[in-house]
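Hi R.,

Here's the chain you asked about this morning:
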Amino acid sequence: MNPPPVVTFSDSTFLFTGTFAYGVRKDCHAVTENLGGIISKGVNKKLNYLVIGSYVTDSWAHETFGRKIEKAMDYRDTTPSLKIISEEHWANAAGL
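And the predicted structure, written out as tokens:
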């Protein structure tokens, strides 16, 4: 998206997929929860942000996290609150 969406942590749901430069997913979850965010267990219509790790390769479609991206892209058409964002955008919004 251009410009990238504003990221609101308080009471928003986040799902992380891929491999992250910041650290393991548990660390990303902790930062998000400390800022008031809620961690989702999967892609659903209540999801606000799908955060894609920095280390995504061209083979993403063949990986488990590729399916999350595909499902989120399908939902995005009918769920305007769902945003797909990069790890970098998430980290900047979190003040990291």
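Helices lie at 25-34, 64-76, 87-93.

Let me know if you need anything else.
M.
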